[in-house]
Q: What sequence folds into this?
């Protein structure tokens, strides 16, 4: 833990997501060429828009950079956030961040604070409801229903269903070069780097998904 202060003009807040297709036990990762032309892999992330909720911003960035619509997934993760008043009991499932990064931004004194969330691809019915034209404003999905179990969620997809991938969702020239891949958890960890934060996010997310299955 550290103590630091940043004025509004030096602080940037963002969010990222590990997007899981639970039925096939796969996760979305992105790739792009580095300065030497070699491919590197990453999870979708980015700055939230002014006035935007951090969770919505993470879902939106996940969609824009990967092309997969997604929604945050409530999981039995441990956290230290207080419950809303009146505090009758603690809900066993929350969609709180599973990781936080602090990184310098550029070469100045600006600080980037990034929150990592766990999300899922959307069921076919929601994809139809949220369908928009290329270049249209982002349409956020409804939250994951509190009463929907993971097993019932999986049953909402026909056997062998492939999550819908949208083309042209990047909002700038750099994002237009991104490619997305739906890969196994093991492959994602290998490509993201076993000691990197993004690999940790995937590991944490998959562990908590299995924990929720066990609870149900």
A:
């Amino acid at each position: 833990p550290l103590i630091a202060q940043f004025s509004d003009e030096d602080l940037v807040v963002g969010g990222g997501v590990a997007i899981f297709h639970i039925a096939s036990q796969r996760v979305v990762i992105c790739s792009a060429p580095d300065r030497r032309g070699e491919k590197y892999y990453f999870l979708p992330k980015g700055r939230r828009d002014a006035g935007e909720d951090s969770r919505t911003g993470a879902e939106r960035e996940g969609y824009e950079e990967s092309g997969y619509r997604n929604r945050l997934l409530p999981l039995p993760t441990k956290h230290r956030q207080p419950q809303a008043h009146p505090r009758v009991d603690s809900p066993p499932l929350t969609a709180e961040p599973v990781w936080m990064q602090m990184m310098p931004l550029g070469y100045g004194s600006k600080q980037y604070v990034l929150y990592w969330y766990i999300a899922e691809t959307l069921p076919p019915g929601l994809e139809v409801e949220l369908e928009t034209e290329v270049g249209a404003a982002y349409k956020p999905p409804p939250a994951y229903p509190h009463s929907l179990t993971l097993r019932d969620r999986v049953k909402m997809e026909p056997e062998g269903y492939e999550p819908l991938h949208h083309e042209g969702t990047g909002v700038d020239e750099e994002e237009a070069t991104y490619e997305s891949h739906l890969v196994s958890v093991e492959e994602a960890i290998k490509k993201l780097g076993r000691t990197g934060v993004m690999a940790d996010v995937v590991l944490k997310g998959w562990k908590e998904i299995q924990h929720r299955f066990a609870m149900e």
About this structure: The longest helix spans residues 197-215. The chain has six helices and eight strands. Residues 10 and 109 are 7 Å apart (CA to CA).
